[in-house]
Amino acid sequence: MFLIASIRYFEIHAAGLEPLELDRQLTELYSRELRKPVLTVIVRSFTRQRVFVGGEVEEPGLVELPAGMTALQAVFQSGGFKETADPAETLVIRKGENDQPIPLRIDLAALMDAEGGSDFQLQPDDIVYVPKSAIANANKFIDEYIGGLLMFRGWSFGVSQNLGLGKLRD
C-alpha cells in the first residue's frame, strides 16, 4: 500500500515575531493539512540590531544595540553630549503601528544628576535625538541673523566711558 500526500507550503512574514509566535502560526496553518503537526522553529541568525543617535552628540550615527541598552548608554556610545546639548529634552522616536513615529521625551539630565529618573530601554530601529539647549539656539540666532543683518561679523565693539576725573593739578 502506497500513501501519496501533498502538502502545501505556506508563506509567513517572520520578521519581528518571537520564535514561539512563529511556531504557533505555522502549527495553526499546517494543522489544516496534517493531524497534530509538530514543528520546531530554530533561529539560525539575527540581523544586526541598531539604533540611530543624533543631534547634539559628539559622534552621531548608528550604534549597535546589545540586549538591554538604554538611551543614556547609546548617547555615551556616541561620544557623549556636546556642550550645546539639552539632555533634559532628549527624544526617543519609535515606530508605532503602521510605522507611525511615536516621539517619547526622556529626561537624561535627571539620570545623570541622580535625581532618581529611570533610563529608557531601547528597541531596534529607535532614534535617540538630543536637541540643542535654549542658550545654544539663542547664540545661533544671534550669530546667524543679528550679526548677518548688521554685517558686523568678525568685528568687535568696545564700550568706553569718560570718568570725568578732571584735570591734573600742576
Structure description:
This protein is an alpha+beta fold. It has two domains: 1-45, no CATH class; 50-135, Outer membrane lipoprotein wza domain like (Outer membrane lipoprotein wza fold like). Helix content is 24%, strand content 15%. It has helices at residues 19-30, 71-77, 108-112, 134-150, and strands at 50-55, 61-64, 90-95, 101-106, 127-130. Residues 156-161 have low confidence and may be disordered.
What letter string, H or E per element, gives the SSE order? Answer: HEEHEEHEH
Q: Judging by the overall fold, what is the CATH architecture of the largest domain?
A: Roll
Provide mean pLDDT, rounded. Answer: 80
Rg, alpha carbons: 30 Å
- SS strand fraction: 15-25%
Helix and strand content put the structural class at: alpha+beta
CATH superfamily of the largest domain: Outer membrane lipoprotein wza domain like
Helix content: 10-25%
**Strand order within the widest beta sheet:** 2-1-5-3-4
Counting structural domains, the number is 2
SSE layout and pairing:
Blueprint: H1 19-30, E1 50-55, E2 61-64, H2 71-77, E3 90-95, E4 101-106, H3 108-112, E5 127-130, H4 134-150
Parallel strand pairs: 1-5
Antiparallel strand pairs: 1-2, 3-4, 3-5
